[in-house]
Structure formats: C-alpha cells, structure tokens
Amino acid sequence: MGKLDGRIALVTGGSSGMGAADAKLLAAEGARVIVADLADDAGQALADSIGGLYRHLDVSDETQWKAVVADVDTTVGHIDILINNAGIVAFTPVATTELEEWNRVIGINLTGVFLGIRSVAESMKAAGGGVIVNVSSTAGIMGYSNLSAYVASKWGVRGLTKAAALDLGKDNIRVVSVHPGGIRTPMTAGMEGSAMYAGQPIPRIGEPEEVAKLILYLVADATYSTGTEFIADGGATVGQVLNV
Ligand SMILES: NC(=O)c1ccc[n+]([C@@H]2O[C@H](COP(=O)([O-])OP(=O)(O)OC[C@H]3O[C@@H](n4cnc5c(N)ncnc54)[C@H](O)[C@@H]3O)[C@@H](O)[C@H]2O)c1
C-alpha cells in the first residue's frame, strides 16, 4: 500500500532535477504521475520508467495548460495533486536586466504557477479537493544579488500561495509553498562545492530526493497545513553566525 494509491499527480518541469525526483517518489507511493515539461525525450523516458505519462507543456502558455489538463481529465482522470515545479534562473543584475529577460523569468516562474493553479482548481473542487505544491526557493524568503527577476518571481510564488490558499480552502484544496536552498540539479551544475554552503548549519548542497520527501509529506500527511512555507535549505536562511 502506497501513501498515494489511486491519486493522479501532475509534476511540471518533471523531466529533470527536483521535478524528476518528485515524479519518482510520488509514483513509488502509488500515484499515477503525469510528467509535464519542454524536454520531451527525458520526460517520456522518465514517465515510461515509472508507469506514468508524459505531456509536453510550456507552463507559461495558457492554451497548452488548457489542452493538457483536458486531455489528462479524459484519458486518466482528474488531477488530485499538482506540483508547480518548473522554473528557470537568470543571473542578471537589476540595472542591466532586459525587459524581455524579466518577462521570461516571471512568465515561467510566477505566471506559470498561476496558470497551473487556475487550470486545476475547478476540477479539484468538483472532485472534492486536492493539493497544490508551489516550488519557490530561499529566493522567496530573502534576496540575492544578480537575481532580481528570479527573486521577484519566487517571492511572488510565496504570496500567490497564500492568496490561493485563502480562495480555495472552502473547496478543500490545500496550497503550500516549498523553499529549497541549493540543490544538486542541472540548474546548479558547477556550484556543488560552492563556498556559500560552508556557512550553513548543514554545510553541503542538498539532494533532489530530500526535497521530494518533503513534498511527499506535504501532499500525503500535512492535512492541517495550507498557505504556508516549508523550507529545505540546510539552514541557509536561519540567520548569521557571529564570530564575537
Ligand atoms: N536547484 C536549486 O538549487 C533550486 C533551489 C531553489 C529552487 N529551485 C527551483 O526548483 C525548481 C526545479 O529546479 P531544478 O533545480 O530541478 O532545475 P532543472 O533545470 O533541473 O529542472 C527544471 C525543469 O523545468 C523545465 N522547464 C523549464 N522551463 C519550462 C517551461 N516553460 N515549461 C515547462 N517546463 C519547463 C526544464 O526543461 C527542466 O526539466 C525550479 O522552480 C527552481 O527555480 C531550484
């Protein structure tokens, strides 16, 4: 018996990194997982390996969301669990960030989460409820230099999570945000040994599976939690060490 037997979960950005770890763990706990991504070959291979389905989905595209959710609804069933995980990063200082770059980051990281919530809300409500996990970042808890669009998008995800939890609570839909610190994925390639981890209470990079386990807990067990933040960052955001 798995914790998620009979449930249907859609994971955006599920072809790689944390999304792939989420997809594997949710499937191992019995969920039928739809891997949704732009990276078709990797996503299809992963879906095949976990007995799930792959669907091409650009999370910033309203039309694609409508088509994918309608298709999943008719071919598999209604989505019980949505993991809004897809995201991109752009290292640009605020003073020289092009509007096009800003809009691209906000479009995927923030508008993509909004479109995801909106696309599943009605069918979750009709089915009696559901759970939505929005993957933010420690960049949604504090600021970072050279990451203005990313930080703005991730704070936006944190705020949107609270507003959505308030709107959807009456429909038995929980909405929570997850805030990973540095995690070993293609997004952080080359940063595994970064000095920034040395000052953390847990002085190492995190693994995607460590975040997936938190997400499984939120989906399956955290039945009295909604609208709030769950941080998995090795303690990076707890404070500063004072050498006095
Ligand atoms: N890796 C970290 O240290 C870290 C830390 C905090 C938060 N995050 C967040 O975690 C999430 C997953 O990141 P990751 O590190 O696993 O990155 P990753 O680059 O390994 O995976 C991201 C996935 O999202 C997909 N994607 C990109 N744009 C998309 C779009 N428009 N539509 C659908 N899919 C798209 C990519 O193809 C890729 O498969 C992101 O939201 C990221 O911002 C990452």
TrEMBL record:
Pfam families: adh_short_C2. Belongs to the short-chain dehydrogenases/reductases (SDR) family. InterPro entries: NAD(P)-bd_dom_sf (IPR036291), Sc_DH/Rdtase_CS (IPR020904), SDR_fam (IPR002347). It comes from Cryobacterium cryoconiti. Coiled coil: none annotated. The keyword Phosphoprotein does not apply. This is SDR family oxidoreductase. Keywords: Oxidoreductase. GO terms for molecular function: oxidoreductase activity.
